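Q: Hi! First time doing this. I have a protein sequence and I read that you can turn it into a structure. Is that right? Here it is:
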Amino acid sequence: MMKIVKMAILILLLLVLPSISHAADIYKWVDKDGTVNFADDLNKVPPEYRDQVKTEKVIESEKIQSPTPGPASVQKTGEEKRDAHGRGEQYWRETVRPWKQQLKQAQEDYKNTNYKIEDALEMVKGRFLSKTQYNFKRQEVERLMEERGVYEARIKEANAMLAKIRKEAEEARADLAWLE
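A: Yes, that's right. Below is the predicted 3D structure, encoded as structure tokens:
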């Protein structure tokens, strides 16, 4: 039994060691324009950025063929604008879209519920109602007010998330027009 375990460990080491020997360092830094840069040799990193370089180990078989673009400004080659993390307009539009939809729907539902509350209160005003009718209308108004509270909470949630996404976009130096 012990012999089998030792043999398994030896085989595992033989499989892992060659991949470790083929590992390479990739150096990553952000220049003054916000462009993310990569190099496979520390000597290729400009001296003024060497103190902020992040080193990543990459196994030869997993080497990145071309780094993901990352500047917040328009690429010099005419490519699509990207934020500091390499995310473009489509990412930001898809991030805000569901929250904008929730906000719009909740605002519409809130407004419609307010109309229903006003209608129910108007029916009670200036009329003589039996105790049963009055209780029924009171319960209807209470239910509608609870429903309105749900829509109000959805509006607050959507506004909070949109503010959070906007802050994240600002920190990533994304074009804020993408959030519109």
